[in-house]
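hey team, just a heads up i'm posting the complex here instead of the shared drive bc the drive is being weird again. everything in one block, sequence lines first with there labels, then the predicted structure for the whole assembly after. its two chains so it's a bit long, scroll down
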Amino acid sequence: MSSNGDIRRVPETFKLGDWPRNCWYAAAYDVELKRELLPRKIAGRNLVMYRREDGRPAALENACWHRLMPLSEGQVEGDNVACGYHGLVFNGEGRCVFMPSQKTINPAARVRSYPVVERHRFVWVWTGDPALADPEKVPDLHWNDDPEWAGDGKLIHLECGYKLIVDNLMDLTHETFVHGASIGQRSIAEVPFDITHGTDSATVSRWMHDVEPPPFWRMQLEWKTGEPAGKVDRWQIVHFQAPSTVAIDVGVAPAGTGAAEGDRSQGVNGYVLNTMTPETERSCHYFWAFVRNYNLDDQRITTLIREGVSGVFAEDEVILAAQQRAIEEHPDKQFYNLNIDGGAMWARRLIDKMMAEESEDARYRMAASDSEMLSGTRSRVEATEADAERLGLR
Amino acid sequence: MSRGHFGPGRVRDARDVASDVRMVAIEPEAGTRPYPTGAHLDIAVIVDELPDIRSYSLVGERPADGAYRIAVKDVPDSRGGSRFVRALEPGADVEISDPESHFELQYGRPEYLLIAGGIGITPLLGMAHALERHERPFRLLYAARTRAQLAFVGELSDLLGDRLELFISDEGRRLDVGAEIDRLDPDGELYLCGPLRLRDAAVRAWRERARRADRLQFETFASGGRFAPEEFVVRLADQDGREVVVRRNRTVLDALKDQGVDMMWDCLRGECGLCAVQVLEAEGELDHRDVFLDEDQQRDGETLITCVSRAVGGAVTIDTGFRVGAGNGSSTQRIETR
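-- predicted structure starts here --
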């Protein structure tokens, strides 16, 4: 009676999508997770999350062992989840602790539990080999709960693969064309940039000297100094951590006050914190925050900036969803690359490297159907790699 | 029935790895796939000229050279499955399932205790490798009657050093499960595979120490019973006292099915309770081998889990719940739940 589709047949840990498995993905904002059941698809897995009585998060497979009823339709009972259909109860580790109408519990009864850790205001889950889930590997987004910084952010559900957002953030040239009313300015598309890379990170830096501040930054500089702002030196330093976290050091300082040389004291500095979690091959959860290092106690600024950035990102949402649709409508086409894509290409190569390392491990060897699913993506990446060679970006 | 997808495989080699243990390597035609700790393979066997299915734990943390490995003990009282598998020669064709695990290691605990009794070492071997590879604190206790019965000891000893302890009863060293549990971190977990007596002792000791029930995990097959199996008669009170003989190497469930008695079942491991029948009278004793009934229910002797449990010392009269003109609500396949 069983089939290959039975979730109990194949340990889902060992299947691959278009993303690495052995890493932490943000699954919820801290404020989202309560003493209630939160269902969410993370890296292709249907999860249900909740907080235990002491506040510690738990993440389980969202299908009851018995009849596959989504556990998210049930209830939190103490540290456990009770299925809303026949009342089976599972603890935060996924083991069954109650079965109806019998005195014992079938020792085979369990749902998969996922390693989970809360850090930098996000709840992170590990969908890969649980033995490798080291909390030290949580991406560094410490600005998000550092007393030296203030701000807030949101979660956006995006109808595009997570790599398209990585591309978007690794090349801020688009600000000129997509966000002209807020943060964009012509000089972003004109000045040169530097790209550096490490074994699991890449950085794109861009300095614009003696330029008019765009509205978003003029406003902030004036909030801090209380005076009309003149020309500024502006910086955008984009730090990528594989596979999908991008922390962007941004800011402006009055022109010629030494910001580029290391003295940013006259300016305003912010971090745009981004971490993208694949949901499916063509959708993702985009967690972001904007934090600043001035007027830390001013909640008005926190709210204004959060809503302002929210509006800016809504412009990206439209672009990225349209791009995803176009990719699907042109399966025979590939990407071509410009010089501006160097940062994104380093990011993609680091993602590919993580995935290749996982697939070399015998335990992650892909089933034929999985590799078939991936082949489209693979050829697209190969094309970008070949182009990188030609452009001398290696 | 929740059984995996079956496919063809071929025996690559078979050799003895202990006085009564034979390791068989099987190459699936579709290629091996990685499996979680505690995984087993189902193999289609022929017992008494009838097709049947047996489960065997996989040896090692992962498949090697495109083959799955199982270790099969020579059980004199076997129902015939192990005899079939032990007789397989290189090149023989077999039907095997995909690996599946009901006994998977849960990471994140401060310490682990692995206890193997005899052939119960098979699922624990892969666990020991996984824990070692991930540098988690653990000990492996391996009990057997004679030294010659120990399998994989050289490999384990090299891997584990003094974290491996052997308990050979013929040499006078017996395993004190309670004392070993006392040494385990209060938040530690115990994984056990071995004979019923060992499992019962561990479950009791665990409960006496008020440890969390879900932190003791055990594999249910290959655990045998309290008595050696013997032939007995089952009398069907609900079918005019008709008698069915349960031979030494057949289960009650098999025997009833062979005689065309309509039965319901699923797991075939004594876990789910679907094949339960009501016991009206037992001349001798019941040999409960399941984990569905609790100790009190087993002592009361009113229910028998027919896929694994047996009787010794005489006939048993049962009620399978069959009623002429069913639908009158008088079914007696009833499990008291207090």
